[in-house]
Amino acid sequence: MDTPETCHSLIVRLQCRDDEAAWEEFVAIYRPVIVRVAVARGLQPTDAEDLAQQVLLSVARSIPQWEHDPARARFRTWLGRIIRNAVVNAVARRTADRGIGGTEAMVSLRNTASPQDDLALLETEWQREAFRWAADQVRDEVDTSTWEAFRLTAIESLPASEAARRTGKSIGAVYMAKSRVMKRLKERLHGPDDECEGQDG
To answer: Among 47, 95, 96, 102, fewest CB within 10 Å belongs to which?
Structure first.
């Protein structure tokens, strides 16, 4: 299913370091993403947790200077570069600590994958975590049958007729339930009127 995108308004709020709610939202969504990307690139879970903390600190230091310019680089492209650099540095330190040099070290560094692969992985993990974060909040705001109608159609990809049969709703009510939950999910991530980034970064 489609998921909402990182929004310019959230990024602007992050540039105000006193906006604790914005940082809580950002960390809740992106920290698990950074950890999974780092693990996928060969780091141990403990090292990946440390790396995530380093990346978040780098973002906190750099975000005041970040400018919204889709023609140059979208936010997740920028974030992806920070993550990639941190992973490459971590791999380099690991190979040095183990006394690995020459060809083996280069192979280890190449295993961090290409920037395009890293960005694709970041995008996939972000979509998964963003949906999980929003769903955890929205699920408690709607009644059980509404959430179930949404889950069956949007997540399980069942026909509306089957969702209607399972929930006891009419087909029209199933579509309305799905639309209502999707609207709340989007608002949870970026508000009803925010300008959001496209899926390419």
So the answer is: 102
